[in-house]
Fold this protein.
Amino acid sequence: MEHKILDAKVQEFINANLKTDLHSLLLKKSPFPEVSMQEIVQQIKGKKVAQKKFPFLLKEGIIFPPNLNLEQASSQATAEFKAKNLSGKSFIDLTSGFGIDAYFLSQNFEEVTLVEQNSELLEIVKHNWGILERKANFINENLENFLAENKEKFDLIYLDPARRDSEKNKKFLLEDLSPNLLEIQARLLKISDQIIIKLSPLIDISYLISVLKNIVEIQIIAVRNEVKELLVFINSEKENDHTTVSCINLESEENSFSFNYKEERSAVSEYSEPLQYLYIPNNAVLKSGGFNSVSEQFALKKLHPNTHFYTSDELVESFPGRILKVEIIDSKEIKKGEKFNIISKNYPLTPDEIKKKYKIKDGGTGYLIFTQTQKNKIILRSV
């Protein structure tokens, strides 16, 4: 496949315009008769995305696909994490997309197969993997057609179902995704004992466990406290009674946190008024719903059933989230014009309403926490 975009002069123009306003560029005529300005701008956008999202692709000769494919691709950080503990002889990605996950997963497998129904996207991936000196079997096929004809077995199947319909509306239920996971799970288990499915972080965990079989683990992956994706690990030999939920916050110094989903239902939290330390779970833990398991594992007490803040007199440094040393204050102690980082949980006022009421500003190094315990609404200040 010939790529006019790779012409040396075109590439020179792209690199020279990485900081140029893209809207103004689009209004200009392309200086190259065989390459449109839209194609040039797309490569500039791709390089800008790669700088933050997948810097390993900042090499000469790499081609970037349209925006939607860039948005849907995993980041290098999450892809590297996924590949850490997976290995075997044969690996297949049934929905390879731009191939970021497949690239890192493929490092630990001898035979790699990528299935992608978008022929132009697959050609781009094939070209890029040539630049990166990575080999694979590239199959331009619809997933369902491939499964109907495939006779091979694989050590690992990976798939990331499309989460938008034909009108680009977001979808979350498994039967609304493409492919419909509920329809193909049995077929997948016939060709591999191990399946990994990447899903939206918005999907409900209890729903997943109720509709999918053989889930050994659910991983909630955040990067710098922003939940990016949810991974479902399926193993043909496991039952859902043993599902582990793991919370990972990459690019932070926080420990990961895991609990047994079934045991969370029988776990019990103790309650207390605020003690010396306040613990605020990271967003991966909050997404997991393992609030009683947090209390039991770290020997912490909760402030209120609906306030997922924890407290203790002894510091528990391994806690997966923010830890603040705090004191209870009276509202009269808040001085007009002071700067605080404001947190409001299970409290009648939003941070903006709090700022307006007390005439305070965002910022500084201190925290004001507006919340409630089982007894009262309270205000805490970090010390």
User: Anything to note?
Assistant: The mean pLDDT is 92. Residues 344 and 350 are 6 Å apart (CA to CA).
